[in-house]
């Protein structure tokens, strides 16, 4: 039996560990795991490789993913999906394991509808897949932001400055929500708490703390314009920091590794029992395999 594995879209801390775990567990079952480089792009281009056990072992606790990833607009077309199916057939792959976010899940559904046998693992720092309460990478992204804010605030506090911290999330406010709580920030601006400038200015004027930290979800406001307005209207000195790709580049935390193990174990169980076209989801603290038909 042969199984392929790919990661698609933005990388998420913990991906390397999932690939490592699945490789080790399938090997014990006598199943060969092949890597597909560059996500759906590699699937369309037949970029299939044998996995190096030593390389997997060496990188399992690091962020990024040795399989590489990419954006693949062509895979959204019928022609692109057919190319992917051809690669599956050419390499005699009995099943395909896919790690990714919302766009990657749509690709997995397309493959399943065309006859491929698929197991999907939610992996996106944005934690925005409605079918699962947790996506691989989220804990680590939040922790990376918390550490960054803690260090920056040491210098802000020395000079009695306040600071805006823009975090990732795309169109989801989950990272901002988590970072707000983890960093004990004073205010948050995200999809759940949109900017009300007049109210924010009034609250800041009433706040007696000399240094404030405000967490901002990306894409909602112009960070520099907001910094200038708050500095002008509150008579406080505000700085602005974009946390950026540090959120993806942080090595997975211990909690992330636990989640990676749970995702991997159930994905392998699906392969072992030939239970395909499943999405591995967290429902609070329990993990389960849901039929793709359930989440449509």
UniProtKB/TrEMBL annotation:
GO molecular function per UniProt: 6-phosphofructokinase activity; AMP binding; ATP binding; fructose-6-phosphate binding; identical protein binding; metal ion binding; monosaccharide binding
Enzyme Commission number(s) of this protein: 2.7.1.11
Compartments it resides in: Cytoplasm
Signal peptide (from-to): none
A Pfam family matched in the record: PFK
Reaction(s) this enzyme catalyzes, per UniProt: beta-D-fructose 6-phosphate + ATP = beta-D-fructose 1,6-bisphosphate + ADP + H(+)
Main location: cytoplasm
Cofactor(s) demanded: Mg(2+)
Pathway(s) where this gene product acts: Carbohydrate degradation; glycolysis; D-glyceraldehyde 3-phosphate and glycerone phosphate from D-glucose: step 3/4
Domain Phosphofructokinase span(s) in chain numbering: 2-271
GO annotation, biological process: canonical glycolysis; fructose 1,6-bisphosphate metabolic process; fructose 6-phosphate metabolic process
Keywords carried by this UniProt record: ATP-binding, Cytoplasm, Glycolysis, Kinase, Magnesium, Metal-binding, Nucleotide-binding, Transferase
Enzyme class: transferase
One annotated Gene Ontology cellular component of this protein: 6-phosphofructokinase complex
InterPro entries according to UniProt: ATP_PFK, ATP_PFK_prok-type, Phosphofructokinase_dom, PKF_sf
Matching SUPFAM superfamilies: Phosphofructokinase
Annotated PANTHER family: ATP-DEPENDENT 6-PHOSPHOFRUCTOKINASE, PHOSPHOFRUCTOKINASE
Cited function: Catalyzes the phosphorylation of D-fructose 6-phosphate to fructose 1,6-bisphosphate by ATP, the first committing step of glycolysis.
UniProt record similarity statement: Belongs to the phosphofructokinase type A (PFKA) family.
Protein's UniProt name: 6-phosphofructokinase
């Amino acid at each position: 039996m042969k199984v392929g594995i790919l990661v698609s879209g933005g990388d998420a801390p913990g991906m390397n560990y999932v690939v490592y775990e699945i490789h080790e567990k399938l090997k014990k079952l006598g199943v060969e795991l092949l890597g597909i480089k560059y996500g759906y792009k590699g699937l369309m281009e037949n970029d299939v490789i044998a996995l190096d056990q030593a390389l997997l072992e060496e990188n399992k606790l690091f962020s990024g993913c040795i399989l590489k990833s990419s954006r693949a607009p062509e895979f959204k077309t019928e022609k692109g999906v057919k190319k992917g199916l051809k690669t599956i057939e050419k390499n005699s792959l009995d099943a395909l394991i896919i790690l990714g976010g919302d766009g990657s899940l749509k690709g997995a559904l397309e493959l399943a509808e065309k006859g491929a046998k698929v197991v999907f693992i939610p992996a996106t720092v944005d934690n925005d897949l409605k079918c699962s309460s947790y996506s691989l990478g989220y804990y680590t992204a939040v922790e990376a932001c918390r550490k960054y804010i803690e260090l920056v605030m040491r210098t802000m506090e020395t000079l009695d400055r306040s600071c805006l911290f823009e975090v990732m999330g795309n169109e989801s406010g989950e990272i901002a929500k988590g970072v707000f709580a983890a960093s004990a920030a004073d205010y948050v601006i995200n999809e759940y708490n949109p900017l009300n400038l007049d109210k924010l200015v009034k609250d800041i004027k009433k706040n007696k703390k000399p240094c404030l930290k405000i967490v901002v979800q990306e894409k909602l406001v112009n960070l520099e314009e907001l910094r200038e307005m708050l500095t002008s209207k509150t008579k406080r000195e505000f700085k602005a920091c974009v946390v950026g790709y540090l959120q993806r580049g942080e090595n997975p935390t211990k909690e992330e590794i636990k989640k990676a193990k749970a995702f991997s174990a159930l994905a392998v169980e699906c392969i072992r029992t030939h239970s395909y076209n499943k999405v591995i989801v967290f429902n609070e603290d329990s993990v389960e395999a849901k039929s793709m038909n359930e989440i449509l």
